[in-house]
């Protein structure tokens, strides 16, 4: 068993993280670009990675770029836009086979660096604008992606809860942007924003695999050399919003199953001393299949197939989700409230606590068995500005007491209840 | 215990067939934190017509019963097995497919105890009328959840279009009505018929010692009494080669329409290397036509017929096989026509060049190696392959031998108007 950690080197304009391991048959590069989530930029950021991944100056069409990837033994290349706390993060991932598993010995890691450099620094452009056709294709594609969120009712109701709960806070913005802004974006304005990203974003590059650290540094210096030094924007912590009267929002839609989503403020974020207690609180309450929500909403009352909770670690939110019969709204809500009260009063056993500690540890260890999972765990430190090692994470979780969990429970406030339900039929 | 070495892949696989017929495979992965085990029976949603153990007559069971049984096996007289796994720091799960039911756990500690829990709970059913009734509410919500999911409805809509008789067209979880009739006695009957060790496979992957793990499993099985059991007799009605319906439109509460084209395979009783070759060749064929490297993909993308959700896949099991191609589209009719045209033209070789084949093979080899990073993938796929007498680790060698003639043959034999169907989800 091994607990992975990254070797971090400050480079011009970015941070290089190297993790050496011979667990995988591939080597993975993940470039992350982070900036505050703002109404002004959100849709630009949502669109940019998709334009960059379409083509480059050297590979001016998607088939040319993708054929090149195929030739590199099907190198995986993915982009992603996500929200962590009130930051919006763009990720570019290249996953390439380690040639030691091939009969063909061509070194592939350098090709991955070349490709990353090509995509980030050498887009297909027209003067000071991206290629028009590429941008219009990707605008159309993003538009459909935004619409498809509301076509997926489970996702839609989760999104609506956040919108209602965090109204007037940046966190209410969707990482995939919005249709109104999308219409105003031009190949010129997107290019201007792209240059801003290269000079202002906080950038981290992770390289993971059976690799030589010195070699990685040489490659990084050779291929990721066009980033000026910067002082990236950092947000003030914002987990403090006091909850007034709780909100209840019932929305009608044509759904067979009602989707119940509930949001709480925890006032605790990654890096706080009681963060570990909060994780355990969530685990006992709703994180797993031994948790109170699963047992009481699903197993005992037979009301739901899924009934669970999860944390947003940087904004300090706890979210409950359950799919229920439309008519069972009150009953499900009563059970969830009751279980929250049980938690706050410390009505959980030492056994439930021990169980949850074991499962959280297991979950973390499993996550770091996957290279992209490992990057996500390590990246918490970048987002929060802390430096917590995995060993520390394990140790603190293990030491947490029942009293600490009850104490963190006192901070948790119900904020918003959202229910998506079938339109009422007039009798 | 035999040891099989895959030197290029740097993997060693251990295998033993136990006295009671159980097939056991162990793949040590020293560098991983996680151990993962799957215990799978060759019994899925399509096995709804069979001779129950010790009976002479065929019987038909309610739709969704294999999946229902999977849920109920977790419950014991003294509580829920999920609880026990999490006490041991493991996370457990299960799934039912058309042809398999798999029980699994992953853990990073207490591996031997968790493995014992897995084997014992699957081999010790406890069904009561009361808990069976209670489960109907939970599974009813699972069915409703899928009913609200337009991608799922599109998927099953397309399969239902293709088949006249074959039970692959029935939703794996059944319907609220069909599961209402399930009783504890039916569950026991299915269990006793399909959960004999000789119909099952246990796969372990992770930082484990092969010798001692095999011993643990062997001892565990030697302590249980199993009578020898003949192979299960299943019955399937004759299935015409043509599709049942060439088009279906589902109206749902969506903004963007969805399109899926299905192609029904013929000659679906292959197994072993033959099946592996058929499956890989057909997937390569689809990738050459519809992959992001293909100019045909580019054209559809630029015309606004497809977006990032576009996908394609071919799968084949005993008695059925189909390709599914589609995604979200604001121009569902144009996309449908365009897909059908590309498929038809491929019969005369359009889109299928030698150069593109070599590139696509490389891509598939790379993705296969990448998927070996995942213990879940290895265990699940290995089991599926083994139930069809194929070997997962043969994938690279079969891929390397594929020729453009093989691909041309796929196009000619596979593509035929009367075996193609389309399903669309349109806004209400």
Task: Briefly say what this structure is.
The complex is a heterodimer of chains A (427) and B (428). Chain A has 427 residues and is of the alpha+beta class.
Topology:
The complex is a heterodimer of chains A (427) and B (428).
Chain A: E1 7-11, E2 14-20, E3 26-36, H1 42-52, H2 62-71, E4 76-84, E5 87-97, H3 109-121, H4 132-151, H5 153-165, H6 179-182, H7 187-200, E6 202-209, H8 213-223, E7 247-253, E8 258-265, H9 275-287, H10 292-300, E9 304-312, E10 317-324, H11 329-344, H12 350-367, H13 371-384, H14 390-399, H15 402-409, E11 413-422
Parallel strand pairs in A: 2-6, 7-11
Antiparallel strand pairs in A: 1-2, 3-5, 3-6, 4-5, 8-10, 8-11, 9-10
Chain B: E1 2-6, E2 11-17, E3 23-28, E4 35-41, E5 49-50, E6 59-60, H1 65-73, E7 75-76, E8 79-80, H2 81-87, E9 90-96, E10 101-107, H3 111-122, H4 129-147, H5 150-162, H6 176-180, H7 184-194, E11 200-206, H8 210-222, E12 247-252, E13 258-264, H9 272-290, H10 295-302, E14 311-317, E15 320-328, H11 332-346, H12 354-371, H13 375-387, H14 395-401, H15 404-414, E16 420-427
Parallel strand pairs in B: 3-11, 12-16
Antiparallel strand pairs in B: 1-2, 2-3, 4-10, 4-11, 5-6, 7-8, 9-10, 13-15, 13-16, 14-15
What's the average pLDDT of chain A? 94
How many domain modules of chain B? 2
> How many helices of chain A does DSSP assign?
15
Name the structural class of chain A. alpha+beta
Q: What's the domain count of chain A?
A: 2
Range of strand content of chain B = 15-25%
Task: Flag low-confidence runs of chain B.
Answer: none
Largest sheet of chain B: 7 strands, mixed
Instruction: Please give the share of residues in helix of chain A.
Output: 40-55%
Helix content of chain B: 40-55%
Percent range for β-strand residues of chain A: 15-25%
Q: If you consult CATH, what is the topology of the largest domain in chain B?
A: Cytochrome Bc1 Complex, Chain A, domain 1
The helix tally of chain B amounts to: 15
Structural class by sheet pairing and helices of chain B? alpha+beta
Oligomer classification: heterodimer
Low-confidence stretches of chain A: none
N-to-C SSE string of chain A, H for helix and E for strand: EEEHHEEHHHHHEHEEHHEEHHHHHE
């Amino acid at each position: 068993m091994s607990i992975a950690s990254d070797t971090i080197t400050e480079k011009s304009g970015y941070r290089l993280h190297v993790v050496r391991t011979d667990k995988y048959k591939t080597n993975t590069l993940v470039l992350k670009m982070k900036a505050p989530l703002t109404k002004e930029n959100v849709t630009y950021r949502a669109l940019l990675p998709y334009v960059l991944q379409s083509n480059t100056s050297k590979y001016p069409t998607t088939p040319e770029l993708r054929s090149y990837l195929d030739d590199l033994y099907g190198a995986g290349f993915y982009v992603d836009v996500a929200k962590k706390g009130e930051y919006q993060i763009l990720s570019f991932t290249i996953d390439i086979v380690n040639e030691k598993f091939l009969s063909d010995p061509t070194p592939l890691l350098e090709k991955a660096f070349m490709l990353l450099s090509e995509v980030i620094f050498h887009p297909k452009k027209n003067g000071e604008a991206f290629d028009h056709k590429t941008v219009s294709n990707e605008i159309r594609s993003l538009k459909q992606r935004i619409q498809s969120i509301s076509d997926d009712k489970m996702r839609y109701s989760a999104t609506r809860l956040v919108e209602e709960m965090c109204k007037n806070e940046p966190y209410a913005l969707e990482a995939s942007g919005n249709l109104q802004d999308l219409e105003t974006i031009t190949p010129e304005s997107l290019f201007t924003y792209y240059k801003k990203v290269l000079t202002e974003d906080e950038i981290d590059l992770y390289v993971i695999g059976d690799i030589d650290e010195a070699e990685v540094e040489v490659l990084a210096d050779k291929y990721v050399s066009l980033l000026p030094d910067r002082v990236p924007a950092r947000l003030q912590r914002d987990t403090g919003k006091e909850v007034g009267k709780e909100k209840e929002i019932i929305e009608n839609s044509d759904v067979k199953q009602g989707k119940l989503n509930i949001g709480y403020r925890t006032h605790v974020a990654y890096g706080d001393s009681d963060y570990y207690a909060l994780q355990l609180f969530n685990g006992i309450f709703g994180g797993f299949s031994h948790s109170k929500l699963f047992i009481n909403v699903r197993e005992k009352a037979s009301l739901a197939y899924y009934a669970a909770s999860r944390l947003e670690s940087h904004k300090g939110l706890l979210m409950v989700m359950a799919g229920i019969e439309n008519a069972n709204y009150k009953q499900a809500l009563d059970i969830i409230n009751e279980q929250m009260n049980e938690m706050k009063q410390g009505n959980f056993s030492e056994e439930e606590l021990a169980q949850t500690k074991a499962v959280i540890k297991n979950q973390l260890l499993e996550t770091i068995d996957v290279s992209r999972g490992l990057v996500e765990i390590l990246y918490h430190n970048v987002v929060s500005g802390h430096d917590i090692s995995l060993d520390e994470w394990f140790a603190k979780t293990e030491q947490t007491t029942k009293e600490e969990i009850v104490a963190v429970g006192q901070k948790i406030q119900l904020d918003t209840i959202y229910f998506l339900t079938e339109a009422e039929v007039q009798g | 215990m035999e040891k099989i070495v895959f030197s290029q892949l740097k993997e060693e696989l251990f295998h033993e067939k136990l006295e009671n017929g159980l097939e056991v495979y162990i793949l040590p992965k020293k560098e991983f934190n996680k151990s993962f085990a799957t215990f799978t029976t060759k019994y899925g949603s399509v096995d709804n017509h069979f001779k129950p153990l010790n009976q002479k007559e065929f019987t038909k069971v309610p739709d969704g019963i294999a999946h229902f049984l999977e849920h109920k096996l977790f419950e014991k007289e003294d509580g829920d097995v999920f609880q026990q796994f999490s006490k041991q720091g493991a996370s457990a799960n299960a799934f039912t497919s058309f042809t398999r039911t798999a029980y699994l756990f992953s853990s990073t500690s207490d591996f031997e105890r968790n493995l014992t829990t897995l084997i014992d709970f699957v081999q010790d059913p406890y069904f009561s009328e009361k808990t069976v009734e209670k489960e109907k509410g939970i599974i009813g919500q699972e069915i409703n959840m899928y009913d609200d999911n337009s991608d799922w409805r599109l998927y099953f809509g397309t399969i239902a279009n293709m088949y006249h008789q074959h039970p692959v067209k029935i939703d794996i979880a059944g319907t609220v009505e069909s599961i209402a009739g399930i009783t504890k006695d039916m569950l026991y009957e299915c269990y006793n018929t399909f959960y004999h060790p000789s119909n099952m496979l246990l796969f372990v992957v992770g930082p484990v010692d092969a010798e001692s793990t095999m011993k643990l499993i062997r001892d565990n099985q030697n302590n249980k009494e199993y009578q020898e059991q003949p192979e299960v007799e299943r019955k399937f009605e004759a299935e015409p080669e043509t599709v049942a319906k060439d088009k279906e439109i589902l109206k749902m509460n969506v903004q963007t329409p969805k399109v899926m084209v299905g192609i029904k395979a013929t000659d679906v009783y292959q197994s072993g290397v033959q099946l592996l070759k058929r499956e890989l060749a057909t997937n390569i064929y689809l990738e050459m036509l519809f992959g992001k490297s293909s100019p045909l993909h580019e054209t559809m993308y630029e015309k606004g017929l497809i977006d990032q959700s576009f996908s394609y896949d071919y799968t084949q099991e005993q008695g059925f096989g189909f390709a599914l191609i589609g995604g979200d589209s604001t121009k569902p009719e144009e996309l449908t026509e365009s897909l059908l045209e590309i498929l038809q033209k491929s019969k005369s070789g359009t889109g299928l060049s030698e150069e593109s084949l070599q590139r696509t093979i490389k891509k598939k080899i790379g993705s296969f190696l990448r998927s070996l990073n995942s213990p879940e993938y290895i265990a699940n796929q290995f089991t599926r392959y083994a139930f069809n007498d194929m070997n997962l680790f043969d994938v690279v060698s079969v891929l390397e031998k594929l020729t453009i003639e093989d691909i041309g043959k796929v196009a000619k034999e596979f593509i035929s108007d009367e075996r193609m169907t389309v399903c669309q989800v349109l806004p209400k």
